[in-house]
């Protein structure tokens, strides 16, 4: 029995597909299941039981002996949300209870952290646990993820195996429901289909030309491969970066999306909104040496490969993974 929280979401639903592909079909899907558009992510997947997130701890107390692994992917991920009480309840306290249950019942755990913890990157993007207390995220979402990481590192009582994964800019199938929080590639696809062109933020930093702001974009299929590896590996507990390890420009992203659509590139630059301009990240790049050092050796999709697969096999047809 494998538990996936955030099961109906973008990453959680892709993870369930990956588990099903390996014939792990005794899946316990945990979410609130109130969003019908989001629930489409679960159509056709092999799931043993759906458990509402509010009832999950009671369920776990009754069924823990059957649980082999727990992936805690569920969280409030809206970076524009500023009601701290929501993050405190869903991202911090809920996660602390999961941690404590996994310790009590000796269930191995992988949980989702975020590259949002790095803030403006003042301390770099090395996943050294020594710098985690020094990090200064730019929004309450990033604060909540970093607060939980800090709390984890202070605990004496730990599951026998655990890993926190700092997801960088994830894109890929099953994000149809995410609206404004969907990946830039998702929005690029729809802008190009609707207007034949794409808007990118102008640079307000003299060190970067327009469109040459850089991010570490990781294809969701690579992310779930790492999750699968850690489930089987179950050693070397710790907090790890999970990006491609290669920063790419927004121009690269846009041009590859135009290419996947066989459409000439037409890009308009617009000012970055003033209210986020001072918190805008111009560069992120995951240091991936730590994950590689524990034996993960599969290559990641290049941005070209990932965008081509995503656009041609999913977005153009409205297909789910």
Automatic annotation (TrEMBL):
Substrate binds at residues 169, 180, 187, 201-204, 215, 280. Transmembrane segments: none annotated. Homopentamer. It catalyses: ADP-D-glycero-beta-D-manno-heptose = ADP-L-glycero-beta-D-manno-heptose. GO terms for biological process: carbohydrate metabolic process. This is ADP-L-glycero-D-manno-heptose-6-epimerase. Contains a large N-terminal NADP-binding domain, and a smaller C-terminal substrate-binding domain. InterPro entries: Epimerase_deHydtase (IPR001509), Heptose_epim (IPR011912), NAD(P)-bd_dom_sf (IPR036291). Pathway: Nucleotide-sugar biosynthesis; ADP-L-glycero-beta-D-manno-heptose biosynthesis; ADP-L-glycero-beta-D-manno-heptose from D-glycero-beta-D-manno-heptose 7-phosphate: step 4/4. Its cofactor is NADP(+). It is an enzyme of class 5 (isomerase). The active site is at residues 141, 178. It comes from the Bacteria. The keyword Electron transport does not apply. PANTHER family: ADP-L-GLYCERO-D-MANNO-HEPTOSE-6-EPIMERASE (PTHR43103:SF3), NUCLEOSIDE-DIPHOSPHATE-SUGAR EPIMERASE (PTHR43103). It comes from Xanthocytophaga flava. Its EC number is 5.1.3.20. NCBIfam families: heptose_epim (TIGR02197). Keywords: Carbohydrate metabolism, Isomerase, NADP. Binds 1 NADP(+) per subunit. One of its GO terms (molecular function) is ADP-glyceromanno-heptose 6-epimerase activity. Pfam families: Epimerase (PF01370). Belongs to the NAD(P)-dependent epimerase/dehydratase family. HldD subfamily. The gene is rfaD.
């Amino acid at each position: 029995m494998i538990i996936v929280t955030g099961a109906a979401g973008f990453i959680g639903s892709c993870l369930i597909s990956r588990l099903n592909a390996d014939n792990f079909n005794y899946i316990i899907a945990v979410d609130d299941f109130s969003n019908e558009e989001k629930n489409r992510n679960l159509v056709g997947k092999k799931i043993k039981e759906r458990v509402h997130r509010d009832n999950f701890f009671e369920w776990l107390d009754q069924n823990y002996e059957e649980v082999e692994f727990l992936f805690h992917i569920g969280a409030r991920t809206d970076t524009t949300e500023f009601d701290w009480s929501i993050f405190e309840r869903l991202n911090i306290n809920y996660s602390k209870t999961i941690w404590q249950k996994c310790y009590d019942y000796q269930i191995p755990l992988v949980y989702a952290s975020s590259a949002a913890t790095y803030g403006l990157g003042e301390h770099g993007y090395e996943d050294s646990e020594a710098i985690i207390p020094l990090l200064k995220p730019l929004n309450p979402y990033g604060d909540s993820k970093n607060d939980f990481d800090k709390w984890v590192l202070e605990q004496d009582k730990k599951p026998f195996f655990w890993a926190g994964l700092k997801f960088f800019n994830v894109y890929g199938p099953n994000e149809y429901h995410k609206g404004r929080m969907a990946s830039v590639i998702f929005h690029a696809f729809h802008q190009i289909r609707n207007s034949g062109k794409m808007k990118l933020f102008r640079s307000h930093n003299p060190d970067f030309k327009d469109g040459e702001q850089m991010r570490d974009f990781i294809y969701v299929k690579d992310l779930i491969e790492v999750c699968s590896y850690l489930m089987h590996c179950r050693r070397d507990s710790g907090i790890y970066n999970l990006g491609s390890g290669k920063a790419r420009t927004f121009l690269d992203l846009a041009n590859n999306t135009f290419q996947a659509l066989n459409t000439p590139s037409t890009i308009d630059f617009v000012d970055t909104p003033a209210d986020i301009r001072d918190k805008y990240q111009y560069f992120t790049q995951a240091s991936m040496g730590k994950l590689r050092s524990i034996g993960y050796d599969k290559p990641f999709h290049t941005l070209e490969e990932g965008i081509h697969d995503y656009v041609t096999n999913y977005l153009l047809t409205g297909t789910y993974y």
